[in-house]
Amino acid sequence: MSGCEGRDAKKLVRSPSGLRMVPEHRSARSPFGLDEPPWVPDKECPRCMQCDTKFDFITRKHHCRRCGKCFCDKCCSKKVPLPRMCFVDPVRQCAECALISQKETEFYDKQLKVLMNGATFFVTLGTSDKSELMVCRLSNNQRYLVLDGDSHYEIEIMQISTVQILTEGFTPGGGNTRAIGMVLQFKVPGSEELTQMKFTACEDFSCNKKLSASWLAAMHKVSKGGKTSRVL
């Protein structure tokens, strides 16, 4: 497989919510993205949907760019970055949505960058008893895990069904654990059967074990993100 990043061109578009930098091709959209919500029509919200203040010439209504509901300025005053919708600048959000978006900022600024920088693992495909040293990273368009060694693989994020992080150092009474590997199960295009791939952190000096552990930790946060990622 190859060419996962061949359609990464982006374009600047203007929506009622603000300027967005989006992929030219919808098929190149990040699986971590969100669609803009429909705005609650003005005629359906005579009062703030948070504090119930009545809108008039003095108390104006504002729409939260994340949920689309109507609020007064007091309840929808924060402008917060919203990378999941590809907004160029911070946008107006209600207090609840602003809190969610602020928490996601750490995910986007740190975890996805770690995954895109990549790390080195011994990779075993299926039931094979042979492993191959490969660099694994998240593609720039965030749609694929790209593995490069003597072989080359591209695993579509949306086709990954399970992620199991392998650890060592756990004790019954608690204690620190260290991520040492990962097992993925995913579907190959054109097949309904699951393929398994095992990643094992290197133990020799040619590999950065700390980098591999950080990459696995980031992958764990992605897979357990639920409300954050909505994928995996």
Explain what the structure shows.
It contains 2 helices and 13 strands. The chain is an alpha+beta fold and 232 residues long. It folds into 2 domains: 105 residues, Herpes Virus-1 (2-Layer Sandwich), CATH 3.30.40.10; 97 residues, Zinc finger FYVE domain-containing protein 21, C-terminal (PH-domain like, Roll). The strands form 4 sheets. A 7-stranded antiparallel sheet has the order 10-9-8-7-13-12-11. This is ZFY21 protein. It holds the Pfam family ZFYVE21_C. One of its GO terms (molecular function) is zinc ion binding. InterPro entries: FYVE-type_Zinc_Finger, ZFYVE21_C, ZFYVE21_C_sf, Znf_FYVE, Znf_FYVE-rel, Znf_FYVE_PHD, Znf_RING/FYVE/PHD.
Radius of gyration: 22 Å
CATH architecture of the largest domain: 2-Layer Sandwich
Write down the domain tally: 2
Order of helices and strands: EEEEEEHEEEEEEEH
| Lateral arrangement of strands in the main beta sheet | 10-9-8-7-13-12-11
Rounded mean pLDDT is 84
Number of helices: 2
CATH class category name of the largest domain: Alpha Beta
Q: Strand tally, please?
A: 13
Unreliable residue stretches: 226-232
Q: What portion of the residues fall into strands of 2 or more residues?
A: 25-35%
| Overall outline | elongated
Helix content: 10-25%
CATH superfamily annotation of the largest domain: Zinc/RING finger domain, C3HC4 (zinc finger)
Would you give the CATH topology of the largest domain?
Answer: Herpes Virus-1
